Amino acid sequence: MQTIMLVDDDPIFRSMISSYLQKLDFDVMEAGDGLEALQLLRDHVPDLIICDLNMPIMSGIELVEEVSWQFPMLPMIVVSATEDMSDVARVLRFGIKDFLTKPITKLDHFTDAIKTTLDESQNNPSVVRDFSSQWFRVDSSGVVAEETELYWHLNHLKDNTVTARDLLHALQPERDTQQGDWKCSYLILQSSENMPLVFDYSWLMDGRFAFYLVDSSAGGDNGVGTALLVRALFNDFLRTRKRCHSDLKDLAEAIEKGIGCTQCADPIPAIFGIADMVEGTISILPAGIKSNWMQQGKNQAIEMGIKLGEGCTKNFVTSDLPMKKGGELVLSELGVRSFKLSIKNTNS
Description:
It is a single chain. By secondary structure, this protein is of the alpha+beta class. It folds into 2 domains: 3-128, Response regulator (Rossmann fold, 3-Layer(aba) Sandwich), CATH 3.40.50; 174-345, Phosphatase 2c, domain 1. It has helices at 11-23, 34-41, 60-70, 85-93, 107-123, 131-136, 151-159, 161-170, 223-240, 248-260; strands spanning 3-7, 27-31, 48-51, 76-80, 98-101, 176-179, 182-189, 197-203, 209-215, 270-276, 281-287, 291-295, 298-302, 318-322, 326-331, 338-345. The strands form 3 sheets. Strands 6-7-16-15-12-13 form a 6-stranded antiparallel β-sheet, with no helix packed on it. Helix 9 crosses helix 10. The protein is elongated and about 65 Å long. The chain starts with a strand and ends with a strand.
């Protein structure tokens, strides 16, 4: 029998969910706060933890962080009534497999989230995946299985535009990142009232720096879903191909394949790039956003091309632009918004 630890300071909620889980043939451990949960973990490690965020003594956020360090392979689901998207984004970065909102009105959705998380943990115990991949059920080949999509997450975000906007803002990565002598920093200037430009990046095993940017405001009703899907496919593509050379067109093709598999995503303006710190070059694939690469007083314009989702792999890849000491990628024609990615060799 599989064991689920339920961590919540509300005894009524705990009692209700515990009874429901027991009817599903789960053994249930209960804790009223994060500290009590950690004490229970000393004697028995469950198959899954379900926890609230707002609790006394030790909050759910502190518990998630601690469990992610002590038990990195232990899956967790957050069930919370919080409206603070910065809190949600913070726990999602620590490897939370799913986030559900209180009150739980659809128990079948709750059950599906539990079963899918447990199946993923059992079948791929060593895989650390971005939470968006869980929402879209992206498989190892990058295919989005439409019949198992978690539509209620995306429908919730569609119906709550402020929540959706705040989540995308909160999910932006750290502004500065460094590996060896190379430092990368980005700056986005935009209104907090609008759907944002969404940026993400990843350092590859060979020291290269991969990144993308999408304009979620130009994705229509599915702008948020598309931005989250791009995030999922970007991370899964790099995770599965981290030991081989990742090509920009292969990346774009995988993402376009995912967009074509779901009704929750539409074509969207984007741009992709990979900076090679060893060679001192950068390559850019436009997908509906115009940009300029500026390096040592020289300006290379990169036309916007076809949007992501409409065949952007037909666009020309501007390859091997010089980057010996660094440079800046600046986006233009974005109205009142602006974006700049600065790459610098700190040893030069």
